[in-house]
Structure formats: structure tokens, C-alpha cells
Amino acid sequence: MAANKNIRIGPVALTTTLTTNILNPQTLTGGVSAGGTSNTATYILIRHIRIANKTASAATFSLWIGATGSNVAGTEFMGTAQSVPANSYVDWYGMIRLDTADFLVGGAGTTTALTFEAEGEIGVAG
Q: Of the candidates 34, 30, 56, which has an alpha carbon nearest to the alpha carbon of residue 45?
């Protein structure tokens, strides 16, 4: 089995649509922001997320892990309307695995004020 590979995800400008698919591991038919298509299903280990605010005003964001285009109660992951100070950023460190059925979805309170960027690993699901 091949070793996991380090990946960078984004940057992705967050919009006010709070059900936007930001990340989903690639499958036999594709994925979201996971680096193209593959001949096999993959998983992603997220180790760091940064939400950066490029504006002179504070802005909020929310992220969920669940089904595609969905942000139902109980699937909140990071930043439920969390404020990011003007010209600053919020970091998250940890480890969470996304499999092919898992979508990281979310958005911001102000269109394109915030940018999502993450680092982690991608591996082949087995």
C-alpha cells in the first residue's frame, strides 16, 4: 500500500451560501478540492485549517461535516458563526478524517471576505 501524501487544500474564498461544498475526498468519479480524479477512492486527514480575513472589518464563518450541500444540526465542526478579526486569521489544529461520503461544507457571513486554506494528507481507502 502506498504511503499517504501531504496536500494543501485551497485557498477557497468563502461565500454567504452556508451549504457550499468546500472539500470532499476524491472517488472513482471525482471529488471537491481534493486534487483531481483518481482510479480509486481516497480519504483525507486534515491537520490544520486557517480561515483568513482580508478585509478591514470582522467577518464570521461556519463549517460542518456531513452530507453534500447540508449543514444540519449536530454536524457542526468549526466556527459556528465564529468571528475572524479584521485583517487577521483563525487557526485550527488537530486531526480529522474525511472519507468519500464526508463533505466539509460551510461559508461566511460576508461574501469573499474570508479565505479557507488547509493542510493534511491524502491516502488510498482500503
A: 34
> Contact, 97 vs 43, CB < 8 A?
yes
Q: How far apart are the first and last CA of the chain?
A: 9
Say which residues have a Cβ less than 8 Å from residue 66's Cβ, sequence separation at least 6.
72, 75, 102, 103, 105
Letter string b/e over residues 56-90, b meaning 16 or more CB atoms within 10 A of that residue's CB: eeebbbbbbbbeeeebeeeeebbbeeeebeeeeeb
pTM attached to this predicted model: 0.86
pLDDT in tens, 50-78: 999 999 999 999 999 999 888 999 999 99
